[in-house]
Design goal:
The structure is a single chain. The two termini are 34 Å apart. α1 runs antiparallel to α2 (61-91). The chain has helices at 6-57, 61-91. Helices cover 90% and strands 0% of the residues. With 92 residues, it is mainly α.
Amino acid sequence: MLGINDDRLSALVERVDSILATRRALLPAVQREVDDAAHRRSRVEYLLSLLAKLKEIEKNGDAIQRIDGAIQDLDRLLDSFSSREDALNSLR
């Protein structure tokens, strides 16, 4: 046996119940964050598609460089969204 008496066992049960209750209470907030991150990701992906179309029709070299810079920045933002989504999904 582990040498856990009834008092310690009761205390452990209460503690685990408390942890589970806290986790259940946080789940709606986590879900909202997951949904919000997915929405932001979708909007950035749409913006990237618009920038790609703009780049195809743009003739000015400086403008093309600025578009490329914006695309790179948004790609990094998407990477950070992926990390955040992974972290949030692990909490669900």
